[in-house]
Write a structure and sequence with these properties.
The chain is mainly β. The chain is built from six helices and 49 strands.
Length: 747
């Protein structure tokens, strides 16, 4: 870590290093469960020195010797004040209990109420899991990723899909982390449901801009998802059953206050329903289901050492008439928290992630593809003083790529096995969270990423890319601020896909001599303003993003088992720019938000569209989301969502001609047409049962697409039966109105 310490010396003024302070530090947890509270606020008075608990609930705050009042707060929890006398370094662990708010029962944000004004971060959204629980979704399956799609700058990849695009980026440009492990395919049932069980999720943070330097590897966004650690006080559980699936989660102490576990499972039962149908409707042996399983173990060895072990397993299975497909993810993370001193916090993670896809054609022929990721990361946090918190660390990922293999157990002559590829990616970074004065604060740092590709029989290639990051906040008043940010990001992974939503048949490949890494540079600025004692927050953000080395295919390219795929990939430039408008009421009997984005996303690639700029397939000019939640009584709440978006840019035939009796379409400009606009309204009602000690129930009754709008999923062309030269467009819609009901329990 010589690099980290040297950089700290360079970043800080000498007076900061020379100042002698004493430190109070510890963990902030939930009283009933022992769960870490992320983003809890710590204030030391007099002097109004402040700090925020980190991802593991740890805080550290320093001040000169003296007597102080230290307060701990977290929205929806009691505020605790303690008297402390700083004449030596002090350990102070705090438990905060939930509190009921008499007039403002629904709270859809658990972070500090004015954090959007005081923090330098911009382009960052945090979801409270209680918020996700109230949002209506298709078939009643609560879905983290679909809730993200209701936020500004984030659009759905296609109707009903969990795939999403951030500020015009493709779906592979989103880094999705579950307890630090990359999730390479985040959906079940071909994209309609996410792999994340919201019952065991603690925190969701999405970064669209101003991304800190301790994140790297993707060009558009980061979605950081944390699982619960497990209740270390007492046994508890939750579960539910809906139209599509059933779920059950249990957690509790192994050693009270020191060691806890979490187990959670979810399974769909479409295959059970299919078996009940008559044989002349569904063939025997037809299978269609998904499952996922989460597990976590949390152990506090002493005041300085904590260990976490978490795992995820999820698969989808489909089989019909001798053909079968299965795909899914495996992730595992081992983490060690170590406190070197009251001001130096370390986390070391060993990470494993795997995505694989398989297709069986009878009992003989099998096709497979996938990616496997082995990683290690060390992050050091230096709480130097209340004005400077530094993060520095190193991250390394070794990846195996299987771009495709077709094998036969009976006839090896038909085997097609593409050469596997291997790559090593590293990143070294440093970041300072710096309070300059009572008006200005900043987050600034740099990440140096390196990449080496060494596929079998291929030319070895390496890249070194510096990635500076900056976010600056200027307080205008106690309720408003101006912010600017800049970040440069590199991405060495590429998803080969012929769709906008992403499918399990898509193929991951690394950068190579012929496919250079994507480099994204983004600048953004915003105005943030709160009203009514921070109950209502609003923002306007503008951004401009420039991309290098984005890829597209030559016309007619097939991605499956294509040994020459890299020769058919062409690269160019991209740009995305727009404005995001956001207003949110965070608590009260009525809460919710309005999100509107106006943007353009274009690209320019040699050999396409006469070398002129053309709309990207992720270009959505207008994107509007309205979310409302109303608490009718203590036990009944009503929620509604309305969404509208411009249709995506597509390429349709411009004409046709006849050749040897065949009708052949021809195309002129790329993405020169648009799908019809997409809009719908969803409604949901949650009815809670009477509260009982140790056992509670609730019902979720909802309707997706309540006014039965038939949005276009795709449009294809066919020759009309009325005439040889008459062509008609046919719209394919997936969903009309979809009612659902779900029953939930907690114990």
């Amino acid at each position: 870590m010589r690099f980290a310490f040297l950089a700290i010396l360079l970043l800080l003024p000498v007076s900061v290093l020379a100042q002698e302070n004493y430190t109070v530090s510890g963990r902030i947890t939930e009283k009933g469960t022992g769960e870490d509270l992320i983003g809890a606020t710590v204030v030391l008075e007099p002097g109004l020195r402040g700090s925020v608990s980190n991802h593991y609930g740890f805080y550290s705050i320093s001040a000169p010797a003296g007597s102080y009042i230290i307060s701990f707060s977290y929205i929806g929890y009691e505020t605790i004040e303690k008297e402390v006398t700083l004449n030596q370094n002090t350990r102070l662990d705090i438990e905060l209990g939930e509190t009921s708010i008499q007039l403002d029962d629904i709270v859809i944000s658990a972070v500090r109420s004015d954090l959007n004004i005081t923090n330098a971060e911009m382009g960052v959204e945090r979801l409270d899991i209680k918020q996700v629980d109230l949002i209506p979704v298709i078939i009643g399956e609560k879905d983290i990723l679909k809730t993200l799609q209701l936020l500004p700058g984030i659009s759905t990849a296609s109707e009903g899909s969990t795939g999403f695009n951030v500020r015009g980026g493709s779906i592979d440009q989103n880094l999705i982390l579950l307890d630090e492990a990359s999730v390479y395919s985040a959906s079940h049932l071909a994209g309609f449901f996410s792999v994340f069980n919201s019952d065991i999720i603690k925190d969701i943070t999405v970064y669209k801009g101003g991304i800190p330097s301790y994140y790297g590897g993707r060009a558009s966004s980061v979605v950081d998802i944390s699982m619960n650690n497990g209740n270390n006080k007492e046994f508890e559980g939750s579960g539910g059953i809906g139209l599509l699936s059933a779920r059950l989660s249990v957690e509790g102490p192994v050693i009270r206050d020191r060691m806890s576990y979490l187990l959670s499972g979810r399974r769909s039962y479409a295959d059970i329903i299919l078996k009940a149908l008559p044989g002349d409707i569904i063939e025997d042996g037809t299978r269609l289901f998904f499952y996922d399983f989460n597990a976590k173990l949390n152990f506090t060895a002493n005041d300085r050492d904590r260990f976490f072990l978490s795992a995820y397993i999820g698969r989808d299975v489909f089989a019909y008439e001798g053909y079968g497909m299965d795909w899914g993810n495996y992730t595992g993370t081992f983490r060690w928290n170590h406190l070197f001193s009251e001001r130096i916090f370390s986390n070391t993670s060993i990470i494993y992630s795997d995505f694989s896809y398989g297709f069986n054609m009878g009992s003989d022929i099998k096709y497979s593809s996938g990616i496997r990721d082995y990683g290690i990361k060390n992050d050091m946090s230096f709480f130097l003083n209340p004005d400077n918190t530094i993060n520095a660390g190193l991250e390394l990922h070794y990846r195996d790529f299987n771009p495709g293999a077709l094998t036969s157990s009976e006839n090896s002559d038909i085997d097609i096995i593409l050469a596997k590829k291997r790559a090593l990616e590293t990143g070294i970074y440093i970041q300072n969270k710096h309070i300059l004065n009572h008006i200005l604060n900043a987050n600034y740092g740099i990440r140096l990423s390196t990449f080496s590709h060494f596929g079998t029989g291929e030319e070895k290639i390496g890249y070194i890319i510096p990635e500076p990051r900056l976010a600056l906040n200027c307080r205008i008043s106690g309720t408003s601020s101006l912010k600017i940010s800049y970040n440069r990001l590199s991405q060495y992974l590429h998803l080969l896909s012929n769709s906008t939503a992403g499918q399990v048949t898509d193929i991951w490949i690394p950068s190579s001599p012929s496919i250079k890494p994507v480099i994204a540079s983004q600048v953004s600025a915003g105005y943030f303003r709160n009203f009514l004692n921070d109950i209502i927050e609003s923002s306007v953000e503008i951004y401009y993003k420039k991309l290098q080395n984005i890829t597209d295919f030559e016309d007619g390219t097939s991605i499956m088992l294509n040994e020459n795929i890299e020769d058919q990939i062409i690269a160019g430039r991209g740009r995305s720019y727009g404005a995001e408008f956001y207003i949110k009421k965070k608590q009260g009997r009525f809460s919710g938000w309005i999100s509107y984005t106006i943007s353009r996303t274009e690209q320019r690639i040699a050999g396409i569209n006469n070398d002129e700029w053309y709309p990207s397939k992720y270009d959505r000019i207008h994107d509007l989301s309205l979310v409302g939640i109303y608490e009718i009584t203590k036990r009944i709440s009503l929620s509604s969502v309305f969404v509208y978006s411009t249709g995506s840019a597509v390429t349709f035939p411009s004409g046709k001609y006849g050749l040897n009796g065949m009708i052949i379409p021809y195309y002129t400009e790329r993405n020169g047409y648009r799908m019809p606009a997409c809009h719908r309204m969803d409604i949901s009602m949650k009815i809670k049962g009477k509260e009982r000690k140790g056992f509670n129930t609730s019902w979720d009754i909802s309707a997706y697409n309540v006014y039965n709008r038939h949005n276009a999923y795709s449009i294809y062309f066919r020759e009309s039966e009325t005439g040889k030269w008459s062509t008609e467009a046919v719209k394919l819609s997936l969903f009309g109105i979809v009612p659902s009901v779900a029953f939930n329990i907690s114990f």
